[in-house]
């Protein structure tokens, strides 16, 4: 399979007076076309910084982010990358789903003559086309989460960045969102997923990158994480959550 995304030797150093904080220290990984890669790690490990650099919200101190062969950290015109941070914020609650997406279609530089078709397309993908004219303030949490994903799909990005896409949702609604994510990957879209729900990671991702203290602690398959944890606890973990908890102490900053 082809590497859609190559993250190469990312370093991000924050300076505050006479102190330096190493948020990222030589972070590298790849994502193939149609792959869901999970980015894991405790709070403060560097996940948000990594996603922010890939999404274009932050420039790295050094390193490269190569998308479809182009280094997007130095490109004048950044390629379209879909980003969904989720949550209750981000939309005009007194506007309809369609009206909200019209606003974001302008930001995504979707040509005006194509906006109607594009908005219908993304609403259909997340199964919200039947509530296109409903005010977002009356949406359930699950509907709002799916609208976030619809927004990230405007203008056909080849890469989606999904941050905690089912956070705060009940089990049934979370499964519906997960089904949508899987369908997107099956259509050929590459997805970088951050999640603290290990059962979700097991359902969606084949490969994971685990960050600890700004460094890549592990890259490989979910089953390989279980084997790694087995060496720590001298017994085979029942699932990814148990495996992650076994190695978690090694991921903390000193």
TrEMBL record:
Protein species of origin: Lactobacillus kimbladii
Every ABC transporter domain range: 5-238
The keyword Transport is annotated on this UniProt entry: yes
Example GO molecular function: ATP hydrolysis activity
UniProt xrefs under SUPFAM superfamilies: P-loop containing nucleoside triphosphate hydrolases
Family matches, as PROSITE patterns: ABC_TRANSPORTER_2 (PS50893)
Protein name: ABC transporter ATPase component
Classification of source organism: Bacteria, Bacillati, Bacillota, Bacilli, Lactobacillales
Tagged with keyword Magnesium: no
UniProt keyword terms in alphabetical order: ATP-binding, Nucleotide-binding, Transport
Membership in a protein family: Belongs to the ABC transporter superfamily.
């Amino acid at each position: 399979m082809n590497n859609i995304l190559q993250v190469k030797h990312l370093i991000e150093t924050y300076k505050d007076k006479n102190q330096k904080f190493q948020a990222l220290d030589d972070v590298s990984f790849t994502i193939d076309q149609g792959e869901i890669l999970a980015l894991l790690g405790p709070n403060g490990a560097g996940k948000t910084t990594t996603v922010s650099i890939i999404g274009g919200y932050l420039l790295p101190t050094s390193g490269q982010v190569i998308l479809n062969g182009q280094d997007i950290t130095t490109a004048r015109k950044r390629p379209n990358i879909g980003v969904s941070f989720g949550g209750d914020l981000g939309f005009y609650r007194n506007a309809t789903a369609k009206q909200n997406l019209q606003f974001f279609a302008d930001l995504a530089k979707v040509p005006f003559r194509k906006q109607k078709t594009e908005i219908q397309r993304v609403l259909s993908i997340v199964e919200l086309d039947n509530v296109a004219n409903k005010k977002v303030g009356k949406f359930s949490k699950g509907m709002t989460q799916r609208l976030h994903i619809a927004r990230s799909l405007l203008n056909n990005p080849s890469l989606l960045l999904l941050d905690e896409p089912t956070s705060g949702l009940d089990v049934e609604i979370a499964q519906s969102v997960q089904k949508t994510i899987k369908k997107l990957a099956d259509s050929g879209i590459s997805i970088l997923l951050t999640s603290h729900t290990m059962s979700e990671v097991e359902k969606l991702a084949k490969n994971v990158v685990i960050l600890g203290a700004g460094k890549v602690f592990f890259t490989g398959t979910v089953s390989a994480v279980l084997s790694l944890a087995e060496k720590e606890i001298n017994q085979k973990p029942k699932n990814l959550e148990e495996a992650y908890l076994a190695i978690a102490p090694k991921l903390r900053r000193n």
